[in-house]
UniProtKB/TrEMBL annotation:
GO (cellular component) term, any one: plasma membrane
Top-rank taxon: Bacteria
Location (main, coarse): membrane
Subcellular location(s) per record: Cell membrane
Name this protein carries in UniProt: Uncharacterized protein
Pfam families on file: Polysacc_synt_3 (PF13440)
UniProt membrane topology term: Multi-pass membrane protein
Transmembrane spans: 12-36, 48-71, 83-107, 119-143, 164-184, 190-209, 216-235, 255-274, 295-313, 325-346, 358-381, 387-408, 420-440, 446-466
This protein's UniProt keywords: Cell membrane, Membrane, Transmembrane, Transmembrane helix
């Protein structure tokens, strides 16, 4: 078992490089943008980004997930090439049509969102960006399906680095303001799209197969409503906040939300690496449920620890990262961080519906949670503003994970280690609460909070969280680390050998 788990964690680390760099770059831009853009301008940007996120869901039609199901269902190399070619053709033509429609409606969209046509130019640029953003989904999906994380990271880094460099040059150097942000995003997506096509072109066939198209749609289309509901979970609170408070509040909330979603560093890495191994383990191992339950426990521990660290140090992080107008954003960070821990659980709990190809059950879970989120947004944001938005997100993602577990267990029951999950939650939640009582100057606060965070693994050990075989492996790993003299490459190679043995 440890051999397969090591492969999952190994690819997760490689994919995680993309998430780490992307998220850190996003956070790196926060102190720049919050000192140049006003909260209102920040809010305008966030409202447009969230709008085009929902349009992207429609344009994608679930292809990002469907490509895995059909690729592994294909029986030979010729069929696999046909699957990839069909996906590429569809993901070129359909987003192109959507982008044209949005482009033509740019002035109307600006009037509806902001009560004026002055931001229509940003909508123009976003419509063009949409085509390249959605169109790059197939090349990136192909690289993941083929188990080529290094090329995936390369393509993604080209897109990311070019976006950052152009954006900083235009926003800081030429003082283009919001226009510079959107132009930088456009050029980065264009370069990423081209790099993706170059990376996969030798391995695909430019033929359109009606059979494989129907397979892709059969798996992917039911996921589109789920994607729309997921948009509601992730983003609809901005529009309620804009209506009940102000665009400036949207900008401040977005800064706190962005720091809270640093948890995605972990959850997105697993989400990228896991599908290939999930289907491989399901089809090739006699007892796949044992792997699935262990992976869930370990990744819950990993994501929860990350969220706990963000929660404990949220006030200090926001104070250092942002301009004074954005300092109040720290209050929403803990709720957002733990919301995305539940999102990681949702992905893992959905293993059953994925391997049985009953993705419509995930759609039900997300639709229900999305509907609950809209109700909570209205009820809580109208009374509590930003904190109401954060609380609505937290409760909605918690319900999402529970609903996914309910549906998935009925088609493919897995004995998840709930006692261990509860232990993590109670111990970590208590430490997060204690951290809110710490209110000293910067250095003393950092010291006390570091002690609280360090107590987390100690308390887990004292509460008997670790199993005997896990303790044995940890001692072996620690001995290996010391033997390798803490040199990263030697440490990783040695740990991998220990886990396989």
């Amino acid at each position: 078992m440890f051999k397969e788990l090591t492969k999952v964690f190994g690819e997760t680390i490689i994919y995680g490089v993309t998430g780490v760099v992307s998220t850190l770059a996003s956070v790196f831009l926060v102190p720049i943008y919050t000192r140049i853009l006003t909260p209102t301008e920040y809010g305008v940007s966030d409202l447009l980004v969230t709008l085009f996120a929902i349009i992207a869901v429609v344009s994608n039609m679930g292809m990002s997930s469907a490509i895995f199901y059909t690729y592994f269902k294909a029986k030979d190399e010729g069929q696999k090439r046909a699957v990839l070619g069909t996906s590429l053709i569809f993901q070129t033509l359909f987003p192109f049509l959507i982008s044209i429609v949005v482009f033509l409606l740019s002035y109307r969209i600006s009037r509806v969102l902001f009560g004026q046509e002055g931001f229509a130019n940003l909508v123009f640029i976003s419509a063009i960006t949409l085509f390249f953003n959605v169109g790059s989904g197939t090349p990136l999906g192909v690289l993941r399906a083929q188990g080529n994380p290094k090329k995936y990271v390369t393509v993604t880094m080209i897109k990311l680095i070019s976006t950052i460099l152009v954006s900083i040059t235009l926003v800081v150097g030429f003082r283009f303001g919001l226009l510079g942000v959107f132009v930088g995003n456009l050029l980065g997506n264009l370069l990423g799209y081209v790099a993706g096509l170059v990376a996969i072109f030798p391995s695909i066939s430019l033929e359109f197969s009606k059979h494989w198209f129907m397979e892709l749609i059969r798996f992917g289309a039911p996921m589109m409503p789920a994607g729309l509901a997921m948009w509601a979970l992730n983003s609809s609170d901005r529009y309620f906040l804009n209506a009940f408070a102000s665009t400036a509040d949207v900008g401040i909330y977005n800064v706190g939300y962005r720091v809270g979603t640093l948890v995605v560093l972990v959850t997105s890495a697993l989400q990228l690496a896991y599908p290939r191994f999930m289907f491989s383990i399901y089809h090739n191992n006699p007892n796949p449920k044992e792997y699935f339950k262990k992976i869930n426990t370990y990744f819950y521990l990993l994501t929860f620890t990350f969220a706990l660290a963000l929660s404990i140090f949220s006030k200090e992080a926001i104070t250092v990262l942002t301009g004074g107008a954005f300092h109040s954003a720290y209050s929403v960070v803990p709720l957002i961080a733990f919301s995305y821990v539940f999102y990681g659980l949702f992905n893992n709990f959905g293993t059953g519906v994925s391997v049985t190809a009953k993705t419509y059950l995930s759609t039900f879970a997300v639709l229900i949670a999305g509907g609950i989120n809209l109700v909570l947004n209205y009820a809580l944001i109208s009374r509590f503003g930003m904190m109401g938005a954060a609380l609505a997100t937290f409760l909605s993602f918690l319900f999402l994970a529970i609903a996914e577990l309910f549906f998935s267990q009925r088609v493919y029951p897995i004995k998840f280690e709930f006692k261990r999950l509860i232990t993590i939650s109670i111990v970590g939640g208590s430490l997060a609460y204690l951290a809110t009582l710490v209110d000293f100057d910067l250095v003393p606060s950092l010291l006390v909070k570091a002690i609280l965070l360090s107590a987390f693994p100690v308390l887990l050990y004292l509460f008997g969280f670790l199993e005997e075989n896990e303790l044995k492996k940890l001692f072996q790993v620690w001995g290996t680390v010391k033997k390798a003299r803490f040199r990263p490459k030697l440490v990783w190679d040695s740990i991998r050998q220990e886990m396989i043995s």
